[in-house]
Amino acid sequence: MCGHIEEGNFNDTNLDGLDWAVLMYWPGEVPEGNGTQQAIIGERADPAQREGLRKIIHGESTAPGATHFFVYNSTMSTVLDTLYAPIDLSIDVDQRMASLNIEGLVESRGTPIISPYSGKPTRSRIDMPDWPHYTIAEMGNGNTTARAGVELDLKDSYGQFNVLHMNQDGVIR
């Protein structure tokens, strides 16, 4: 999971323009827990921004169950130290395209689902008006290789693209 904050704050700390990624692994189904998580925050964040974004990503400053960060973190038995590194991130939700490169740690690409009938990109989305994760998500294809504390090799996997407006109480609708 990764994201770019166009505009936002953590209390009085401005988070505009920051990028982040979270690597997560579970040995079984997510609700069964026992997951491992590692956050990576763009290195240009100053100390206050790093701490604010770390707290958000780990669901530490939210109403219980109000955000996907809280929900995912509640399934983790191992939370690795947060890393700080240059993040090269590009996301186009409407086109279902994304590219993430954190040199030596993560390379990930998101692309549209291609119709087996027409050979053209197809659109599929999920509306979740009462869900803590998002309101609308576009589906896509994902490929990720990660070599940080969490190692992943995902080929033609689930990809999801969304715009999220949230605060400590969850998604702002």
Automatic annotation (TrEMBL):
Domain of life of the organism encoding this protein: Bacteria
Pfam families: DUF1326
Official protein name in the record: DUF1326 domain-containing protein
